[in-house]
Specification:
mainly beta; 2 domains; 19-stranded antiparallel beta sheet; 3% helix; elongated; disordered C terminus
């Protein structure tokens, strides 16, 4: 049996119990190295725990299947470390998908419901400070998108409606003073941007602006 790998404390482990009446199936490369272990039900569909291994024999993925569809918690590993944790329900992403950097630090959380982004998507710096949060409803941005300065204070907040910026977008200097105001209607700028000097010094370009030229 493959020994369990360390996981972040907030990650529920996949169910490794083997359902009765299933058949264990192994795949191996031409050199005989184990590539995967699956379990099949009487109809030949994957049913129960599934484990994949990398070329060095380390666990690469652990997840469960029910009647041929991914179901329950899953973990993806990179070089023996947790890279991604996620969860399925009846073959669709459902719940939190968490991404980790090579040092094992939480980098992002994407929330799903029935295969669609739903709720907050969040990104974090290596020290755990928030970088960006985006609200989703049924796979479309809907609600506030908020960027943060390195100290965690708000850099920019923009409301979205049905996937488009809609309403008053506000930027802030590191000290909290207003930096810019832009008014959107259904993704179109109808006023602004109006920029304001930073009382403490020159203003800075927003994080999304540096990433996407906004």
């Amino acid at each position: 049996m493959t020994p369990p790998l360390p996981q972040p404390s907030d990650t529920p482990p996949p169910d490794d119990s083997v359902p009765p009446g299933t058949t264990r199936v192994e795949t191996r490369d031409p050199q005989g190295r184990l590539l995967s272990v699956a379990h099949l039900n009487a109809e030949g569909a994957m049913h129960g725990p599934f484990t994949a291994f990398d070329a060095q024999g380390r666990v690469q993925m652990r997840m469960g299947y029910r009647d041929g569809q991914p179901d329950g918690p899953a973990v993806i590993y990179r070089d023996g470390r947790v890279q991604t944790t996620l969860s399925y329900a009846a073959g669709q992403l459902d719940g939190e998908l968490r991404g980790y950097d090579p040092a094992g630090r939480l980098a992002s959380i994407v929330r799903y419901a029935q295969g669609r982004k739903h709720g907050l998507t969040e990104c974090f710096s290596p020290d755990g400070a928030p970088l960006v949060s985006m609200a989703y409803d049924n796979d479309r941005q809907h609600g506030p998108t908020t960027e943060h300065h390195p100290d965690g204070s708000v850099r920019r907040r923009t409301p979205y409606v049905d996937g488009l910026p809609d309403g008053e977008s506000l930027e802030f200097h590191p000290g909290g003073a207003p930096a810019a105001r832009t008014l959107y209607r259904a993704g179109v700028v109808v006023d602004g941007p109006t920029r304001f000097d930073d009382p403490a010094g020159p203003g800075k370009t927003s994080l999304l602006g540096r990433l996407f030229g906004k």
